[in-house]
């Protein structure tokens, strides 16, 4: 891709400021002398104005707490949980002056182990979203809360005599014991009522496969710390599988100890697990069942059959590593493949997978649940519909016609976080409380329960939770806190008070259930008819917006997707060969047709994609909810079959002859790949260069000399570090127009490299923060000494001195410096900002500081305790977020520190080390599979 | 053709140039003096507060210790403001003028914060840690002035970068022994100041043969 692509229209969260007319080029050619003088005068006046806009330093509010018990709470931390697909991961929310400013992982929680993902990091942003719903509305008009209470009371009076006939409750996936208990109470009070669940990202085939294999809905949870060989059939344990943070940590811990699992990934659409695979097989969906059958047959599973050229080799690897071998199946595979995998794991006697009771309160096929409510609506049996937290008008397959059906129901109530597609069609529109400001409980991927507690006072005072709506329907309104307390009082009995306090302190409310050892049923093997040939549509969650519920998080929209580097939208992803066969080049607009429904999308070839299929990322083309997400990319739900299938044959694709808008950072900040990433064979080392001779004297570092080491063998490209950096350092979002001009502001970027053949390349990721070079090329070229070295080896950026020549950025070989083309301070100066990091004005350069505010804070804390800084006292935001602990930070003067030990590793190297910059941020080489060694 | 310039024109030009130069110098001098004066930094200007609070009464008259209300000054970066409960703890009993304390009662009722106006606020890009300064033996009055004599609290020093650097270049002149940091009637006794073993002052830092104190490096105060 080259050149700027015209960006998508629509209001941007941070629109580019209009160019001052005086500074635009003169319409008729060369400037005349007078014109030049006038312009100079204008720009001088502008600069004088810019100098006067200092924030007033007088009369700023100084917040004093109301109560003495809050006195210490200038900075406070709360252990709570956030949900993804209904399953929780533990987080610690840091608040300043009562405002949540940062989310970090809870080290005690089994689904986090201290790490976060991009969605957890962005919770702070959505909490403070100015676009969130705040008022209770009836048909769009704000009404007093009492009117809603009266309407629910009237509905109760109408429903109670007929046993709740006509009442339907539609929720997202529910793992919360309290919500399940309250819903159970509603169903008991209204026996004719029905509860339905809807999750566009649910993998119904997994549930069906487990039911076929064991006769019950179990969850197969891998334990990658014990695995030696993992075959992923479309599974993405490092990326989108529930418990991904835990799986990534388990995988890297074992790998670092030399007993890591060999990842064999067979998938159609490239995932980050595929990028980290030791062996990757691009697998067309139509061949998936045959491949799985062939592997199973080679393993000796009775009744399995199939042929595939790669199957025998894969099976041999699995057998060799028995019982540490495991087969994982992900979205896009049929129930028969899931059942087959259970049979294979049984045959392998795998110790690396646990069969657990399903963590959801009522596991059920979500597509069937939605289909049955659609049938009831069509039959006119639904009079009252409560949609709690789901958005089916957008994320149900368009083929179902949910929007039209919704209009036929007399009483509709939508509890939603923002005015989305479903809200607009419902009579009662109730704002939903944010997870960071409300009580609740939840279960992790392995069933570990935890309490959710508010970290801030409610920012939307009229907001309610599911529990408040349902208890009102029961006629016994209860607060969420009371309901959660009641659930756990029943579970804990006498010891409630102590255990409640401990659960809030620790962020855990119990243990994971024990694994089950059910026997395989006789009739598990029910092969499906083969998929017809031809172009196949593969639906997939978008790595940035998931199913669309994260589409309104500006941080996530602007974060380049790990493999495609696309921001602010999505594209139809396909193999380069498929694109070539259709005569398409990147960015061409195509018309996709499936089952008579059409959608326009940009074409984007992705190396490693299986040929003859097209990945359609879900979550684009939002039609409501706010300017950040609306109209970004195309809406793949428009093509999704009514049964919510993850793959659908019969796709047709043709070029419209137009170019489409794709904003990508793929070509930005290029560094020669052969110089940037290195690989070694397992156990191999890199030649360690001697110290370059330099005419400059060395800097002395009497106390600490901070340094960072990033292990490329551990990096999975998940972007958690980059979003954590954005949250911690008040990094602005610039919008698609500025990104297409190369003006994104991320202090930490994750570069992605493909090596080898285009059809199935090896991929690697490289996080690139500022290198804090010992001989920094940026320092000598600054005319005003705005970037300089300090006594701890930090390469400092003095914002008030910077006059914006951008020479430093030009001279930086790593391209890590970012220039403020616009003044973003007004948009950033919200309670969500980190008060420890200043906002940068327009016209100054900025870059990674190694979280110098955290260094200063740790030094103050240590000094107050009367001790020197210890290794581990300073954790940068990126390091804290990383699921695989790829980033190490510490004092290079201390030979025992983790970063010093990392530098002694044989895989250690400096990026562009031959330039003699002697960077402080260095890398450990990726360990390449034996095949390449 | 008549002369364009009269014989006096030259003299008038010179006079104009001299006057112009003098005015320019005067302007520059005035500007220079103004930005260095307290007026430009709003020294002595009290800010509007939610309650007519007098440090002169509390700290001066009653002799309350600074830490009674600003409890975080030895532990945290922010000195901390007294909670509404701290104020009302005494004022339930003495000087219980309901109207004056309405903002405090409202804060307790709503669980919200009392919004005092900051008098000595540093700009966003400056980092200041009260605990580090009190531990290094810097008294409150060094920056805040004689607060105990102020009926309405006002800024006592410019708190500009020059003010900070004056002290960071020669800290010993302002440092007190550990026990005397909060004393109001301290007279220098020549006793050694409180040097912290792990503070920035304890490192020597030399580059190109020039000794630079870590206390004057940019990153010490700027973020």
TrEMBL record, chain A:
Annotated keywords: Iron, Iron-sulfur, Metal-binding
Keyword match Electron transport: no
Domain 4Fe-4S Mo/W bis-MGD-type: 75-131
Domain 4Fe-4S ferredoxin-type: 706-736, 794-822
Keyword set includes Ion transport: no
InterPro entries with a match to the protein in the record: 4Fe4S_Fe-S-bd, Asp_de-COase-like_dom_sf, Mopterin_OxRdtase_4Fe-4S_dom, TAT_signal
Domain of life: Bacteria
Matching PROSITE patterns: 4FE4S_FER_2, 4FE4S_MOW_BIS_MGD, TAT
UniProt region (Disordered), positions on chain: 1-28
UniProt protein name: 4Fe-4S dicluster domain-containing protein
Protein species of origin: Roseomonas populi
Taxon lineage: Bacteria, Pseudomonadati, Pseudomonadota, Alphaproteobacteria, Acetobacterales
Automatic annotation (TrEMBL), chain B:
SUPFAM superfamilies: Multiheme cytochromes
Cytochrome c7-like domain location: 127-223
Domain of life assignment: Bacteria
Gene3D superfamilies registered for this protein in UniProt: Cytochrome C3 (3.90.10.10)
Residue ranges of coiled coil: none
InterPro entries (alphabetical): Cyt_c7-like (IPR029467), Multihaem_cyt_sf (IPR036280)
Name used for this protein in its record: Cytochrome C
Organism listed in the record: Roseomonas populi
């Amino acid at each position: 891709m080259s050149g700027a692509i015209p960006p998508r229209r629509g209001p941007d969260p941070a629109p580019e400021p209009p160019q001052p007319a005086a500074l635009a080029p003169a319409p008729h050619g060369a400037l005349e002398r007078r014109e030049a003088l006038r312009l100079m005068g204008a720009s001088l006046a502008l600069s004088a104005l810019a100098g006067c806009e200092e924030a007033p330093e007088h009369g700023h509010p100084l917040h004093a707490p109301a109560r003495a018990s809050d006195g210490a709470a200038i900075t406070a931390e709360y252990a709570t949980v956030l949900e993804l697909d209904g399953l929780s991961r533990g987080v610690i929310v840091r608040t300043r002056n009562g405002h949540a400013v940062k989310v970090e992982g809870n080290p005690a929680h089994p689904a986090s182990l201290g790490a976060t993902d991009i969605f957890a990091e962005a919770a702070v942003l959505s909490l403070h979203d100015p676009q969130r719903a705040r008022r209770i509305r009836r048909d769009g008009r704000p009404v007093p809360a009492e009117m809603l209470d009266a309407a629910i009371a009237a509905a109760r009076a109408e429903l109670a005599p007929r046993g709740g006939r006509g009442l339907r409750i539609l929720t997202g996936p529910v793992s919360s014991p309290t919500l399940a208990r309250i819903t159970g109470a509603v169903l008991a009070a209204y026996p004719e009522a029905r509860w339905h669940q809807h999750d566009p990202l649910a993998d119904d085939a997994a549930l069906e496969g487990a039911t076929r294999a064991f006769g019950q809905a179990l969850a197969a949870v891998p334990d990658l710390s014990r695995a030696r060989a993992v075959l992923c059939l479309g599974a993405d344990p490092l990326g989108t599988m529930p418990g991904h943070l835990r799986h990534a940590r388990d995988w890297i811990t074992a790998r670092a100890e030399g007993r890591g699992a060999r990842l064999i990934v067979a998938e159609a659409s490239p995932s980050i697990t595929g990028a980290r695979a030791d062996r990757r097989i691009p697998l067309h969906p139509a061949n998936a069942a045959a491949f799985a059958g062939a592997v199973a047959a080679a393993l000796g599973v009775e009744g399995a059959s199939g042929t595939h050229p790669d199957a025998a080799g894969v099976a041999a690897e699995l057998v060799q590593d028995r019982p540490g071998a495991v087969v994982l199946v992900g979205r896009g595979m049929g129930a028969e493949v899931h059942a087959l995998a259970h049979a294979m794991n049984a045959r392998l006697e795998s110790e690396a997978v646990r069969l657990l009771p399903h963590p959801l309160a009522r596991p059920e096929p979500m597509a069937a649940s939605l289909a049955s409510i659609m049938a009831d609506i069509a039959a006119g049996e639904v009079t009252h519909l409560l949609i709690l937290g789901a958005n089916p008008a957008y994320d149900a397959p368009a083929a179902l016609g949910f929007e039209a059906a919704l209009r036929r129901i007399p009483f509709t109530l939508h509890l939603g976080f923002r005015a989305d597609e479903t809200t607009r069609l419902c009579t009662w529109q109730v704002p939903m409380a944010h997870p960071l400001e409300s009580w609740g409980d939840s279960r992790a991927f392995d069933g570990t329960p935890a309490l959710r507690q508010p970290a801030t006072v409610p920012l939307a005072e009229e907001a309610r939770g599911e529990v408040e709506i349902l208890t009102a329907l029961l006629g016994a309104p209860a607060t969420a806190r009371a309901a959660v307390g009641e659930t756990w009082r029943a579970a804990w009995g006498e010891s409630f008070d102590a255990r409640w306090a401990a659960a809030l302190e620790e962020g855990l409310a119990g243990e994971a259930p024990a694994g089950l050892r059910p026997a395989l049923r006789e009739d598990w093997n029910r092969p499906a008819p083969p998929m017809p040939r031809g172009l196949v549509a593969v639906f997939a969650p978008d790595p940035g917006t998931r199913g669309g519920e994260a589409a309104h998080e500006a941080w996530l929209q602007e974060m380049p997707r790990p493999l495609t580097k696309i921001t602010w939208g999505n594209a139809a992803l396909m193999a380069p060969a498929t694109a070539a066969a259709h005569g398409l080049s990147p960015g061409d607009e195509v018309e996709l047709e499936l089952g008579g429904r059409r959608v326009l999308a940009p074409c984007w070839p992705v190396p490693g994609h299986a040929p003859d299929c097209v990945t359609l990322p879900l979550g684009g083309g939002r039609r409501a909810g706010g300017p950040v997400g609306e109209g970004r990319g195309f809406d793949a739900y428009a093509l999704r079959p009514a049964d919510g299938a993850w793959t659908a044959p019969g796709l047709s694709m043709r070029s419209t002859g137009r170019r489409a808008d794709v904003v990508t950072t793929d070509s930005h900040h290029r560094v020669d790949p052969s110089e940037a990433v290195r690989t070694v064979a397992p156990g191999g080392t890199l030649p360690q260069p001697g110290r370059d001779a330099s005419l400059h004297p060395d800097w002395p570092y009497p106390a600490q000399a901070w340094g960072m080491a990033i292990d490329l063998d551990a990096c999975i490209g998940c972007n958690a570090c980059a979003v954590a950096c954005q949250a911690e350092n008040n990094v602005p979002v610039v919008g698609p127009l500025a990104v297409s001009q190369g003006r994104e502001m991320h202090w930490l970027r994750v570069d992605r490299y493909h090596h080898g053949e285009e059809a199935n390349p090896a991929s690697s990721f490289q996080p690139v923060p500022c290198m804090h070079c010992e001989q920094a090329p940026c320092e000598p070229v600054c005319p005003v000494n705005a970037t300089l070295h300090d006594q701890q080896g930090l390469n400092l950026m003095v914002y008030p001195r910077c006059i914006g020549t951008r020479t430093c950025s030009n001279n930086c070989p790593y391209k890590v410096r970012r220039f403020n083309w616009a003044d973003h301070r007004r948009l950033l100066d919200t309670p969500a900002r980190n008060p420890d990091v200043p906002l940068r004005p327009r016209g100054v350069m900025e870059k990674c500081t190694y979280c110098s505010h955290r260094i200063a804070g740790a030094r103050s804390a240590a000094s107050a305790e009367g001790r020197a800084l210890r290794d581990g006292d300073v954790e940068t935001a990126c390091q804290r977020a990383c699921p695989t602990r790829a980033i190490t930070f510490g004092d290079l003067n201390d030979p025992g520190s983790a970063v010093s030990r990392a530098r002694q590793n044989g895989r250690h190297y400096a990026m562009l080390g031959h330039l003699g910059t002697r960077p402080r941020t260095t890398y450990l080489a990726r360990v390449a599979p034996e095949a390449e060694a | 053709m008549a002369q364009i310039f009269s014989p006096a024109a030259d003299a008038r030009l010179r006079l104009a140039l001299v006057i112009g130069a003098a005015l320019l110098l005067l302007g520059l001098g005035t500007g220079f003096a103004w930005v260095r004066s307290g007026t430009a930094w709003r020294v002595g200007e009290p800010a509007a507060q939610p309650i007519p609070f007098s440090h002169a009464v509390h700290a001066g008259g009653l002799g309350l210790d600074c830490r009674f209300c600003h409890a975080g000054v030895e532990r945290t970066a922010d000195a901390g403001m007294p909670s509404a409960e701290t104020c009302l703890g005494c004022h339930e009993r003495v000087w219980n003028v309901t109207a004056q304390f309405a903002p405090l009662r409202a804060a307790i009722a709503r669980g919200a914060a009392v919004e005092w106006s900051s008098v000595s606020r540093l700009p966003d890009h400056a980092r200041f840690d009260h605990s580090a300064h009190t531990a290094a033996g810097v008294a409150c009055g060094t920056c805040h002035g004689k607060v105990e004599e102020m009926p309405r609290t006002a800024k006592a020093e410019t708190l500009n970068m020059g003010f900070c650097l004056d002290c960071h270049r020669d800290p010993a002149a302002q440092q007190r022994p550990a026990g005397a940091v909060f004393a109001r009637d301290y007279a220098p006794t020549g006793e050694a100041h409180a040097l912290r073993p792990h503070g920035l002052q304890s490192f020597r830092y030399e580059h190109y043969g020039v000794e630079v104190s870590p206390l004057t490096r940019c990153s010490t105060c700027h973020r």
